Amino acid sequence: METQKPPPRGKEFWEDIRDTVRDGVNEIRTVGDDLAKQARLRMDIFQTERRLKTVYGALGEAAYRILSENRPVSHEDTAISELTARIVYYSDELGRLRKEQKQREKVG
Predict the structure, then answer these.
(1) What is the pLDDT along the chain (108 residues), one digit of tens a residue?
(2) d(CA 42, CA 34)
(3) Helix H segments across 1-108?
(4) Which letter does DSSP use for residue 75 in this model?
(5) What are the boundaries of each domain within the chain?
(6) Exposure pattern of 25-50 as b/e (b: 16+ CB <10 Å)?
(7) pTM of the entire structure?
(8) Fewer CB within 10 Å of terminal CB in the chain, N or C?
C-alpha cells in the first residue's frame, strides 16, 4: 500500500503551482509554434500552386501568340524558355514543400 505525501504547504505549494503553470505555458507555446509552422507551410503550398498555374497560363498565351504569327513554338524563343524555367522551379518548390508537409504529418 502506498503512503500518501501530505499536500505541500507555504512556499513549496506556490513553487509547485508556479512550476505547473510554467510547464503548461511552455507546452502551449510549443503546440502553438507547431500549428503556426503548419499553417505557414499550407499557405506556401497554396501560393506556389497559384504561381505555377499562372505561369502555365502565361506559357499558353506565349505559345498562342507565337503560333498566331505562324512561327513554330521552340525553346529557343526567350519567352518560352523563361516560362519553362519558371515552371520547373515552381514544380520543384512545390514538390519540396509537399515532402516537408508529409514529414511533419508523420512526426505530428
Answers:
(1) 566 766 666 678 888 888 889 988 889 998 899 999 999 999 999 999 999 999 999 999 999 999 999 999 998 999 999 999 999 999 999 999 999 999 988 876
(2) 12
(3) 10-68, 78-107
(4) T
(5) 11-107
(6) eeeeeeeeeeeeeeeeeeebbeebee
(7) 0.73
(8) N
**Pick from 108, 99, 107: nearest CA to 41:** 99
C-alpha cell at 29: 507555446
Cell numbers 518548390 label which residue? 93
Q: Rounded CA gap, 45 and 38, in Å? A: 11
Distance CA 19, CA 67 (A): 72
Nearest C-alpha neighbor of 57 from the set 14, 25, 86, 99 = 86
